[in-house]
Design goal:
305 residues, single chain
Amino acid sequence: MTDDWPYAFKLGVVLEEIHPDPEVSLPFARDLGMTHVEFGSLWGRPLDQTSEADRERMRELLHQHGLQVAMVGPSTFKMVYLGHLRLDELASDPPFRRELESMRRVLEAARYFGSPLARTFSFRREGMVGLGNPSPRLPAGGEIEPGMLEKLGHALRLICEVADEAGVDLGLENVRSCWANTGHNTRRIVEAVGSPHLKVVWDPANAFVSGEEAAFPEGYDQVKPYVAHVHLKDARLLDPATGLTAWERIGDGEVDYKGQLAALMADGYRGVVSVETHYQPAGKSPAEATRLTTQGLRAVLASLS
């Protein structure tokens, strides 16, 4: 890297957190010092629904701004339920099949853009409303019953088979509304799948809002062997009774980012740490919020040197 970024891991950003138009978000990302980007849409269209012209223009813009793609993928499988299905019904379930076809197109896009990862999610938890905020923050993210764990393993293996055919690995992101919500539950699911094509997109703030109070170090220790990409944002708890949380600028929330970032350095992590802002201060645009969040990240890193 450069003197301005003397770390082994690379700096990236989720483009949609800046602006839906890559003509706007890409130069802004470069101005922030990013070398890598990720995206699940182009010009407001989900990646699996974009045209060849969209992709060609995006590849030109990436080259123009000297940016590489770390991961692609809309919210595939995030809204698909498995609980009502028998194990032998999963592969033929219409919502699952539709998402699997979307994933095939996402994987094609990953290859087109030279991305090593295509993001996936671990299916929706029953009882979730909206994005799950508020929802109860259960210890370690809540239990996964053996029968459900078996379904998750089987369904994700089917997706991994498609990824294997495409030659692209899957990045399973932990998120509050899905079964892989914390480090604890994400590890259980990855090991139930048992595929070398399933990696982890570790998001400590998502683990925290899901109930993993010590997302670092306990949550991170659970997934460390599988981490291929890291999302960075911060959060705090507003109401313990309902589980209401709020996103914060990195360093201003309750996630131990000093510990987490120091551990990534000590562990020799060489992948991408990607700013996924979510933080929306009053009167600030998403781009401005991303700049503030990135400044928070840099301040935490500077405090470690």
